Amino acid sequence: MKRMGVGNGVFIVLMFVVMAQGENVWALEYNVGDSTGWIVGPVNYTIWAASNQFHVGDTLVFSYDKQFHNVVEVTKEKYDKCTSAAPLAYYNDGNTTVVLKKQGSHYYICGFPGHCVAGQKVKITVLPLPAAGPSPPPAPAPSPPFVVLDKGNSKSNTFPSVPLHQLASAPLLAALMWALIVFHLF
Ligand SMILES: [Cu+2]
């Protein structure tokens, strides 16, 4: 049962590091069409896309036989019309990885004749980073300094008083916590 304490500690530290870095470390990879991949026929990609949530930083993987398919990113108009002329992006490597960098709608079709019309097309709606979403954990409010120096009175002969809790900076705390956990584990 003591181990659980260490595990919780690791988790808390990880959360701390994640929040400190402000990066989307929860980025996910989605295989378009899951195990079936990017083909024409059996997969309804609209239903597939609706069953997933995509965020900025996530990755789409299109797996396909490049002899018979490709991946063409197009505008909404071209997506609706299944036209792949003058695409926004074009891939034909058979295993296409696309990082979703911008929030909003992205449209992908297969450029082979008839495939898009037959359903080989997918609209991906990219949501903002989870961190910018509904309820980020509230940051601990910094407590007010012990002594409020009168800024207007620079000739004040009181010594500037730096509260202890300001000396213990966040990185220092993180490092300290890491040291404690490493100490526990090894
Ligand atoms: Cu195709």
Largest sheet: 5 strands, mixed
Instruction: Return the structural class.
Output: alpha/beta
Radius of gyration: 26 Å
Name the average pLDDT: 75
Q: What is the helix tally? A: 5
Residue windows where pLDDT falls under 50 for at least 5 positions: 10-22, 144-170
User: What is the architecture of one domain at the second tier of CATH?
Assistant: Sandwich
Question: What is the string of helix and strand elements?
Answer: HEHEEEHEEEEHH
Strand order of the largest sheet: 2-8-7-4-5
Q: Which cofactor or ligand species appear?
A: copper (II) ion
The CATH topology label of one domain is Immunoglobulin-like
Quote the beta fraction: 15-25%
Residues in helix, %: 25-40%
Shape: globular
Number of strands: 8
- The CATH homologous superfamily of one domain is termed Cupredoxins -  blue copper proteins
- In the CATH hierarchy, what is the class of one domain? Mainly Beta
Give the distance, in angstroms, between the N- and C-terminal Cα atoms: 17 Å
Give me a quick take on this structure.
The protein is an alpha/beta fold.
What does this structure look like?
The structure is a single chain. This protein is of the alpha/beta class. The chain has a domain at 29-130: Immunoglobulin-like. It is 28% helix and 19% strand. It has five helices and eight strands; from the N terminus they run αβαβββαββββαα. It has a five-stranded mixed sheet with strand order 2-8-7-4-5. It is globular. Mean pLDDT is 75; it is low at 10-22 and 144-170. The structure holds copper (II) ion. Copper (II) ion binds at residues 40, 68-69, 110, 112, 115, 120.
